[in-house]
Design goal:
By secondary structure, the chain is mainly alpha-helical. The chain has one domain. It has helices at residues 2-40, 45-69, 89-117, 123-152, 158-168, 170-182, 186-213; strands at residues 72-74, 79-80, 83-84, 155-157. The strands form 2 sheets. Strands 1-4 form a two-stranded parallel sheet. Strand 2 (79-80) and strand 3 form a beta hairpin.
Length: 217
């Protein structure tokens, strides 16, 4: 009996590892595509930020979909007006809709901010930026499809799923603030751009783990 339980547990863990490895590898590749285009086409910080903005919007859309797909979830730690939130279908829908409005408004403000900083870009750069955004869309769609069934059959923490996308945009803030300070020359810009892209990729992978692990507790 114990042997059968152990074999079953090993199979489940192997499936989790497979999903993790594939989705994480795809995420790293999507970030590498951005690095290649950024260096090859000599992008500015603003150009890179448009790609990050697109990825963040994509994350928000799939997060909304994940919340709406939930079957079993807990609202432990969630409060509205200092009152605990009950784990009901109505609460789930209200949380999903509030997330969509709040997250969407935040990115609308971000859009306006980036638009004011935007400078003319070549057709090749525009195509490269679109290709990077598409690579992130494919990556997050793939991750969503791979984890959908597992998420629906597990007890997820609604509050954690709600908050995780906000944590994933921290690299965007750091790139704007720190990047604008240090990118003072062409040589410094290339090195700094690569540094921030690597840091962003590292943070992306870490938050990917948080997104698909902690939310299940």
């Amino acid at each position: 009996m114990n042997i059968l339980k152990l074999e079953s547990k090993l199979k489940v863990n192997q499936g989790r590892i497979g999903r993790f490895d594939i989705s994480t590898t795809a995420l790293i590749l999507a970030n590498l595509v951005t690095m290649l285009f950024a260096v090859a086409q000599n992008w500015s910080v603003t150009d890179v930020m448009w790609v990050y903005w697109s990825q963040s919007v994509i994350i928000g859309l799939f997060t909304y979909r994940r919340i709406m797909d939930l079957r079993h979830f807990t609202t432990k730690g969630m409060k509205v007006n200092n009152a605990p939130v009950e784990p009901t279908e109505a609460a789930k829908r209200e949380t999903a809709h509030f997330f969509l409005v709040h997250y969407g408004f935040f990115h609308l403000v971000y859009f306006v901010f980036l638009w004011t900083l935007m400078t003319p870009v070549s057709v090749f750069s525009a195509v490269g930026m679109a290709a990077c955004a598409l690579s992130f869309l494919i990556n997050h769609w793939f991750s969503y499809k791979r984890n959908k069934e597992s998420d629906m059959n597990r007890t997820m923490n609604l509050g954690t799923i709600f908050m995780t996308p906000y944590l994933r945009i921290i690299p965007m803030h750091l790139t704007i603030i720190i990047g604008g300070i240090f990118m003072v020359s062409e040589e410094t810009s290339v090195l700094a751009l690569l540094l921030f892209l690597v840091l962003k990729t590292f943070a992306d992978v870490i938050m990917h783990i948080v997104d698909h692990r902690i939310g299940r507790r």
